[in-house]
Amino acid sequence: MNIMVFDVPAEKGGALSVLNDFYNEVIESEHTNINWIFVLSNPILNETENIRVLRFPWIKKSWGHRLYFDQVVAPKLVKQYKVDKVFSLQNITIPRVNCEQILYVHQPLPFVDYKFSFKDNRLFWVYQNIIGKNIINSINKSQWVIVQTEWMRQAVIEKAKVDSLKVEIIPPTINLEVKKYFGPNDKSLSTFFYPASGAEYKNHQVIVDASKKLKKLGKINHEVIFTLNGDENNHIRNLYRLVHEEQLPIRFEGNKTRNEVFDLYTKSILIFPSYIETFGLPMLEARMHKGIILAAETPFALEILKGYENVKYFEASNSKELCVLMQQYINKKVLYKPQLEVQQNEIKHERKLITLLT
């Protein structure tokens, strides 16, 4: 059997993690009778006897290049390699092919209630109103749809009007060996950490505003760490200027390795104010490190952190609520609750992506 895996958008962040995790599933699989063809842009994966990797870096040159690939090159590849199944990790199916297609949907923008205007954010407007229609059409054309969370499953069923039996939940694989857990002390209870990109919906603004309020309260020592450089986009540049003008204790430390992020979960409180996610992986990772989490009250946060004791929620746009929560931990008015050993299978499904393909 020949299975072609398409993931040309994947280059960094969560999308690349999903690709790498699935590739590792294939490597570990006992199904040696399957020939796998991975179709990518820039990522480099090793080939084996039954894994072939096709790379097309030119796709990233422009939207026009991507459109040409999707409409012309991709269908030709399916026919050229006599593909029996297509597994699309890129939210859309391949047009004009006759084989079975399984679709992985991890783009939340078409499925959330929050609507972006063309004036405020053209790219997100395009995702919600143009690309979103293509995603919904692809959901209807595919044989199976895979999502990461229950809230996303319900949103897909409602927006695409598909049978609930067609949509499967398979959360991201967490290949994580926890070597150290969160330790509550003066430093860790006054240090706040947010690993996220500079997208506007990641909502760094509410943390900056909360930090500003803390500073006005007087002698409340704290620091905040962002995994940003400060020049990612106009929105982040404006925040960076505000932080320096107000002399807020917020550090823009840039990208961090996975191990550096894990280490910070043990030495700081995770703030997760993002209001648009399919999953929100840092919350699960911080939970596995038995850390304290301050999260915006969203369907995905409530799902991932269900039953977890060291979490407090705030309204995503309410910096005053967040400020109060930060102050309570800094002043030890809220006590850390020691956790029992966290087992991965207690907080995630054991089913793997490859099970739906084989």
Please give the structural blueprint.
Blueprint (H helix, E strand, L loop, with lengths): L1 E5 L6 H16 L6 E6 L10 E5 L7 H18 L4 E4 L11 E5 L17 H20 L2 E4 L2 H11 L6 E3 L21 E4 L9 H13 L6 E4 L7 H13 L3 E3 L5 H8 L3 E4 L8 H8 L4 E4 L2 H6 L6 E4 L4 H12 L13 H4 L6 H4 L1
Parallel strand pairs: 1-2, 1-4, 2-3, 4-5, 5-6, 6-7, 8-9, 8-11, 9-10, 11-12, 12-13
Helix pairs in contact: 5-6, 5-10
Query: Strand pairing plus helix content: what structural class?
Result: alpha/beta
Query: What is the first-to-last residue Cα distance?
Result: 10 Å
The percent of residues in helical segments reads: 25-40%
Spatial sequence of strands, sheet with the most strands: 3-2-1-4-5-6-7
- Describe the main β-sheet briefly: 7 strands, parallel
Overall mean pLDDT: 90
Tell me, briefly, the overall form.
globular
Radius of gyration: 22 Å
Report the uncertain regions: 343-349
